[in-house]
Amino acid sequence: MADSVCLFPPLPEQTAIVEYLDAETAKLDTAIAVARREIELLRESRERLIADVVTGKVDVREVAVQLPYEPPEEEAGTEEEEPVAEELATVASQEEANGEERDSSQ
User: What angle do CA 23, 27, 32 make, to 5 degrees?
Assistant: First the structure.
């Protein structure tokens, strides 16, 4: 290792590289800060809108009419609930079987 040679670019080139990287990371830092601020403003706006709707300051009935059709909750939920119910029944029967096995082994 003592005989190893390590090459570096000349000092002006190193300085140029550092300045370039500093400028590029500053752009990224600015973009990140702007995006975070926009997210914060959107959250504030969402909270205000929810509060206004809940308190009755904003009437959403007109807007709701313009929304795309969604099936009622009962229809939308039945397809998803059946596999979940089956899975819960399977888990419950497995727990019962495990409980019986543990009791019989004691």
Answer: 145
